[in-house]
Amino acid sequence: MNSSSATTQLKSWISAFSNALDSGDADKAAAMFTEDCYWRDLLAFTWNLSTAEGRAAITAMLRAVLPLVRPSGFVIDGEATESNGIIEGWYRFETEQATGKGFIRLKGSQCWTLLSSMEELKGFEEKKGSRRVFGAEHGVQKGRRTWLERREEEERTIGHERQPYVVIVGTGQGGLALAARLRRLDVPTLCLESNANPGDAWRKRYKSLCLHDPVWYDHMPYLPFPDDWPVYTPKDKIADWLDHYAKVMELNIWTSTACEGASYDEERQEWAVKVTRGGKPVTLRPKHLVFATGVSGFPNEPKFPGMDRFKGEQYHSSKHGSGERFAGKTCVVVGSNNSAHDICAELWENGADVTMVQRSSTHVAGSDSLFKFGTSKLYSEAALERGITTDKADLINASVPYGLMPQFNIPVTEAIREHDAEFYKKLEKVGFQLDYGDDGSGLFLKYMRRGSGYYINVGASELIINGDIKLRHGQIREITEHALVLEDGMELPADLIIYATGYGSMSDRVAQVVSPAMAAKVGKVWGLGSNTTKDPGPWEGEPRNMWKPTRQNGLWFQGGNLHQARHYSQYLSLQLKARLEGLPTPVYGMSEGSADR
Ligand SMILES: Cc1cc2nc3c(=O)[nH]c(=O)nc-3n(C[C@H](O)[C@H](O)[C@H](O)COP(=O)(O)OP(=O)(O)OC[C@H]3O[C@@H](n4cnc5c(N)ncnc54)[C@H](O)[C@@H]3O)c2cc1C
């Protein structure tokens, strides 16, 4: 089918769909979808990030939301395309409160997947482009105050004379991206960061670390990297970028200031957030508290019998800086995911004798292959040349409902498996326990389901294959004065033991900062409920509690990789702005959550 007939078909679907919605006929609208359909909504219809799966769920959603949302103005945006029997294309629409954009996939004359996303709130559009502020104040004015004086006053008074509407805990990419968007929307915001600089979370990581995702995937909101930025950014360079981002985006940040405690006053509908500032206790009283403390920000410190008697050095991988001190030493790294591999390779480069202890199987994917068969389709120079800007790529990415992601990702994993068959054979030959995800869907789904269980190979696998990094298997029985002992009795002598045992979820941080009861009330943060390893059900169809209303009023979570921090901060910022302005924000499809965390 050529593009013009694909466009005609999409136009006709949109027009009929729009008529069905206009007449408030939820059944008629839902009947325009295939039986195996998905409608993913990012706020526009549900004030939630939610996916309706199947016609019945779409009918129920539309019945509940149509009278308030009153969608209108549906038009297709650009030409549609057709491939393998699927017609794809963009459309625009409006609701009572907002402008929106979406992406559709049709199978025949019915809709298979529909994405609807809120772009801007009517009347509260960002001051960009032709709406930008003037800056200078031409003319003469007694007592004129400069931009610097106003900015300094803002920094001096926020949190003291003026309460922020939002407090964000953490200024990694997640906190900064959200703070930048809230600033544009005029939402008074204060960020708290226990480190001395906004980018320190990256700066403090092991010396050899470079981003595993390529530059096209990693831009922060509003301020893309220069076009000579390296494909894979070294961690100190991204740390510098984040420090500068905070400055030029004029974000209010209290650095070297930990959020020590927080409690919610249901009656006043506000938080009491406790910090120490300049040696004095300060209580902040925001309406909203956002945890942007990192999906990989709470180290899982293991407890093995005998750890206290170990005479060498031992620490969690998050504390590893550089392997230089360990030249000629015997090092054991517990774990076989990203950090474990990177650190083993770095220790080996520094002349240490290195053993990796693999406790369970790991998915390994070559960095080049992941890019070639996966990321580059939407995020690359070639994609840009095809007109896929970062914004478009983000929305196309978002248009694949989580329920369909295995279907989209299994072929990618299979292609990598075929392309790298020799490599995988060699890894298996030396006994490395490989997996490809419970259903063969590979890396991205492991990340979304459990945030762990994989290595993006940038060289350590070759060291394992040729024996430079020794490989042992099994659980840890105990630690003795000079060794780590495996369950089967094998003793691994060690001067250094690194526990690359991963990270807990942000709910661990909530338990620490607010209370274990609050963490339990909110439930799991991250994971989809896919009933696969380390991601128990129930199925949510969306990442749990991320970027959307939680079961605690005024408590939110922001974070994820750079792409997610960029894209989903848009929806979190719109939710907070709407609440500041007192707009109705009825949430449809509130998660039942999971009782445990
Ligand atoms: C080794 C490693 C490699 C990674 N590589 C990549 C990659 O290549 N690409 C990618 O996209 N992602 C990567 N990630 C995952 C993720 O993107 C990073 O963890 C990233 O730093 C997350 O950003 P964030 O803003 O969500 O949280 P973080 O960067 O973890 O920032 C959280 C901040 O919260 C602060 N904080 C925590 N508690 C408090 C408190 N009580 N009070 C005040 N401040 C507090 C911390 O000091 C920290 O600065 C990697 C993660 C790790 C651990």
Automatic annotation (TrEMBL):
State the Gene Ontology terms under molecular function.
flavin adenine dinucleotide binding; monooxygenase activity
SUPFAM superfamilies, A to Z: FAD/NAD(P)-binding domain, NTF2-like
Q: Where is the PH domain?
A: 1-22
- Gene3D superfamilies hit by this protein: 3.10.450.50, FAD/NAD(P)-binding domain
List the PANTHER family hit by this protein, alphabetically: FLAVIN-BINDING MONOOXYGENASE-LIKE PROTEIN (AFU_ORTHOLOGUE AFUA_4G09220)
Q: What is this protein called?
A: NAD(P)/FAD-dependent oxidoreductase
Q: Give any Pfam family that matches.
A: SnoaL_2
Keywords of the record = Oxidoreductase
On the tree of life, the source organism's domain of life is: Bacteria
Q: Organism, per UniProt? A: Acidisoma silvae
